[in-house]
Amino acid sequence: MVTGVFDAAVIGAGAAGMMAAAQAGQRGLRVVLLDHAEKLGEKIRISGGGRCNFTNIGTTPANFFSQNPNFCRSALAAYTPRDFIGLVERHGISWHEKHRGQLFCDDSSESIIAMLRRECDAGKVAWRMACTIKSLTRQADDFRLDTSQGEIRARQVVLATGGMAIPQLGATDFALGMARQFGLKVVEPRPALVPLTFDAQQWAPFGLLSGIALEAAVRCGSGKSRTEFLEDLLFTHRGLSGPAILQISSYWNPGEAIMLDLAPGKRLGDEWVAGKSGNRQALVSVLAALWSRRLAEQWLASEPGQDGTALGAMRLADMPDKTLRGLAERIHNWTLHPTGTAGYKKAEVMRGGVDTRGIDQKTMQTKSVPGLYFVGEALDVTGWLGGYNFQWAWASGAACGRSL
Ligand code: FDA
Questions:
Q1: Ligand 1 atom 35: residue of nearest CA
Q2: DSSP of 6-20, one letter per residue?
Q3: Is any atom of ligand 1 closer than 6 Å to the C-beta of 143?
Q4: In this protein, which residues make up the domain named RsdA/BaiN/AoA(So)-like insert (predicted)?
Q5: What span, in angstroms and rounded, lies between the C-alpha atoms of 216 and 98?
Q6: Is the shortest distance between the CB of 397 and ligand 1 below 6 Å?
Q7: Which of 49, 61, 237, 293 has the smallest CB count inside 10 Å?
Q8: What does the alpha-carbon distance between residue 155 and residue 3 come to, in Å, rounded to a whole number?
Q9: The domain boundary residue, chosen from 295, 311, 341
Q10: Would 1 be classed as within a structural domain?
Q11: pLDDT on residue 85
């Protein structure tokens, strides 16, 4: 039974879907927004530790990872962080900058969900929540959606069902399945902004350091593909996490190494050799002044000893220059081979997705199926940590909503 005929059906009432639906509805289109979840905007709710890091004022295309790096330019230029800040302020939501251009709500991410809901209401968007989409087909000039709440017909359809991160909150690969059904290419999806894991036996000594955080420079790749982040690093039982690792995880490919500088900005070898004369400090104390004592002890325990004496107990003055320089080199260039990631259950986003070479960058419409659009994280556009992924959701949603 046909239960509704619309100008546009938006599947997925997350960040990008609500933005697209609100914009189109406010232009006078009859829009329906469908989502299989019972609760609205779950990812927005949990984002930014409950305060939603809703944008980054420094957003540029360079903050995104894609096989088609220029694709995001047009939408990001047409809907900027300033545009979203303007919307937030019109709704009376107070915010603050936390770190490196990252903007958060002062109170709760609930206010962003409520704001998007009011924007949809202003566009008279119809809702179908806790609604399963059984199939999507194109017949003549219309799309037909067979849903648990009856059949819906729409002239245009927007796929805004996001990526696969956090399946426990209802994330699915629906958009990727639909892309394949309509003959579009998909860039292999993978968990991103995700902790990295290591061989259990090899990692065991460092697993004891779980909970320790420090600033580090983390890099992977070489030549043109070399990428580096200077952020905090966190030891966990299974491997490494923290912003530095989440960032590099989006660039890391299985089988590759990552390199860590655990004393960024310093030249420990030169410093130690120049200052060692008469320095009676034990090496472990020298390192403990740099990091935590636990990390200093563990690090030195894994280093080869010197003539039967544990390295940590040796005084700086008694250490040969070569040994000091070797130790410093390993601290500045700690090379690790992750065996994998903590997976979609712990990832913040999915990298890969619908290949943007089949999508118009100004409208988000597919080039091969008129009336079919993809927005948000479902596309092969992955932002860095720090509000960029929401900015992409708003910008791609707005680009689509303005052109439906
Ligand atoms: P989004 O995931 O928001 O929405 C997709 C919608 O589609 C959901 O409502 C879902 O229920 C629905 N759906 C899925 N499958 C469906 C199906 N088969 N049928 C019907 N409906 C379906 N980013 C950022 O910029 N700042 C931040 O602070 C954070 N913090 C953060 C924390 C955590 C823990 C995670 C997991 C992620 C973040 N992110 C983030 C990333 C950010 O949440 C994400 O990139 C955006 O929500 C993506 O917006 P979309 O609208 O594309 O998908």
A1: 348
A2: EEEEEE--SHHHHHH
A3: no
A4: 190-349
A5: 20
A6: no
A7: 49
A8: 15
A9: 341
A10: no
A11: 98
